[in-house]
Write a structure and sequence with these properties.
The structure is a single chain. This protein is of the alpha+beta class and about 475 residues long. It has 2 domains: about 50-250, Cytochrome Bc1 Complex, Chain A, domain 1; about 275-475, 2-Layer Sandwich (Cytochrome Bc1 Complex, Chain A, domain 1), CATH 3.30.830.10. It contains 18 helices and 12 strands. The strands form 2 sheets. A 6-stranded mixed β-sheet has the order 1-2-6-3-5-4, with helices on both faces. Strands 7-12-8-11-10-9 form a 6-stranded mixed β-sheet, sandwiched between helices. The longest helix is centred in the first third of the chain and has 20 residues, at about 25-45. The chain is globular, with a radius of gyration of 24 Å. One of its GO terms (molecular function) is metal ion binding.
Length: about 475
Amino acid sequence: MAARSVCRAGSAAGRALLWGPRPSAALLTLTRKRGAATYAQTLQNIPETQVTTLENGLRVASEESNHPTCTVGLWIEAGSRYEDPKTNGAAFFVEHMALKGTKKRPGSAFEKEVESLGAHLNGYTSREQTAFYIKALSKDMPKVVELLSDLVQNCALENSEIEKERGVILQELKEMDSNLADVTFDYLHATAYQGTSLAHTVEGTTDNIKRLTRGDLASYIDTHFKAPRMVLAAAGGISHRELVDAAKQHFAGLPFTPKGDSVPTLKRCRFTGSEIRARDDGLPLAHIALAVEGPGWADPDNVVLNVANAIIGRYDRTFGGGKNQSSKLATLAVEHNLCHSFEPFNTCYSDTGLFGFHFVSDPLSVDDMMFCAQGEWMRLCTSTTESEVNRAKNYLRNAMVAQLDGTTRVCENIGSHLLHYGRRIPLEEWDARISAVDAKMVRDVCSKYIYDKCPAIAAVGPIEQLLDYNRLRSSMYWVRL
């Protein structure tokens, strides 16, 4: 959707330049200077993120603005990576149960109270974090903090609700199996991190969902929902002092981890170059994902790899633009009808990551699309140009400023940053890191992670044409004479 919007905006701008009066060179120069100054001022005028740590270890962080609304949320260092094979799915189950009533607000009373505020409640679970957040009017911030506190400290976990939600989750799992993109990425994790906790799916297995008990869910909450593992984040028209006061009032009883108690630690998940193929010739399209091991969240190489992904670009037949797109791979895809869509990704975790690309193609185009995609990787390693890097950096800056759009995105940015980096990294600092990237850095960093590395591959659908793993491995380098 974002890329499609960019294409439409670009077309509109093109028509305006073609049909409107031609501006003078002086006016163009002035416009460019004004645009550059506006971007710089935007970065400098972003409100400071204030962080306060309570006595029990809960971090309270906020960014104040003049919005009439606010988003307040809890980001928790817990997810499927903290589970073992027998409890896989507990985090996802707990997320469902947390929204189904508390001891103080049983049944649907919790949801009704949220609705009475005209607020919006949501949550999600990933491999390394769980989040619950509420968007409401700024004046209702103290009430929102109380609701979030009740949600994580007094989850009812009634047996009747557990059985009801068990059926809902099992139905969701069936529906998720029809989303081949998600299935492909789950397979990619399963083969890349086989035998480790990162190989688990977020939702868990059908057998586990059928087997998990109230005791399993309660144990998960008691183990992971501790104050030092949480961030209470807020963005919008709120006062940080009032947020801290509300947090002290409602989260004072949140358990912390005393000295001597066992703290869940993450085991190193080693990357394995291997593949999973789920061939089904009855499906119309093939889904292919190929990845190498990338860096963890805090590694500075991530900025360079994101620039590299912006050079590769992304493509979907619905985007428009055709062969005139700046992405070389998109141009090839259009000219030779190689795929329906492709998208690079850089998925990061605390100590590792997956850097790769995913594409959807017709059965007879799989080989050609894979050849062109791997060739684009090799080109990044050997012959990236400064003009490509400059274009990619501008794309990243645009995506970065888009994070300012709405209180929910800002709130999520604050919460996830404090979990991943231990602080909120200002956009001005991100801009400086992006500006420091040049073509040589892209070539060097891409060579470090891509060149002559063993990839992990996941393929679903009519994939007969996908070459043998050894052939794909041999395309991870170019023979240089």
